[in-house]
Design brief:
By secondary structure, the chain is mainly α. It has one domain (2-95). 83% of the residues lie in helices and 0% in strands. The chain has 5 helices and no strands. The chain has helices spanning 2-12, 14-24, 28-64, 68-80, 82-95. It is elongated and about 80 Å long. The N and C termini lie far apart (71 Å). 7% of the residues are buried.
Amino acid sequence: MLVSYFTGMKISNPNKIESFKRSLNVNNARTYEESVVTNILTFTFVVILILISVVPAITIAVNCNRGKLRTALVTVFAFFLSDIYLCNYAIRRYWLKEPGYCK
């Protein structure tokens, strides 16, 4: 099937095959260096995002919820859904002003 496709392409439009060959010919050393730099930058960005959003949520979850089971469940929730947890904290603490919440 693939051979008949390329044969038909060669007959109907020979320039497409040549451009396809040129697109496959890459300098592997340069491509590898670019991918390593891209991966390092991506990993660094993800770590910074985790530090900025997840760590404060976990810290608040541990300090505001006492009890072994409750602290564990809320900490897991704060880790996976940190933005929602921080929004919940801000609403309960500053908008609703619940007595006894996170003293």
